[in-house]
User: Fold this.
Amino acid sequence: MIHNQPWRDHNHGDCVQEAISRATALCAARNVRLTALRRRVLEILWQSHVPLSAYAILAQLGDGARPAAPPTVYRALDFLLEQGLVHKVEHLNAYMGCPMPEHPHLAAIFLCEHCGCAAEIDAAGLAAEIGAAAAEQDFAIRRQTVEISGACSRCREQRAGTRA
Ligand SMILES: [Zn+2]
Ligand SMILES: [Zn+2]
Ligand SMILES: [Zn+2]
Assistant:
């Protein structure tokens, strides 16, 4: 199970395992290739619940001796975005793994401004509202993400603790 409140204590190994196995199953079902590189990029993104920039991914991809080439990372990210396996957090210019990649959805992403943790929900009600408004405006939506900044419960508790 992928934890839906990532700032709560949980066994993150379960999140990683579940995310990778879902991605593997999904790519097999769609008959697209989750190459070693694409899988590696997804694993790097799932190391934590903190979204990462392409640059940060690149830094981890290098084999130590030589860094990976930027275009290969961007191509892998394009594939993962296209398959809905990751989302781009626009205002951070960063990427995060999607916990529910099987069906298209409007991702509402809660971002903690203190620890950088991100949680995603499927904002189905909001999606319906935006869809109706877009139809009214005769506007074709290509990509949509809702980003909400604030403080996670762990950071709020820590702050309350230091004050006490
Ligand atoms: Zn986790
Ligand atoms: Zn998602
Ligand atoms: Zn936090």
Notes: The two ends are 35 Å apart (CA to CA). The chain has one domain: 12-163. The first strand starts at residue 86 and ends at 89.
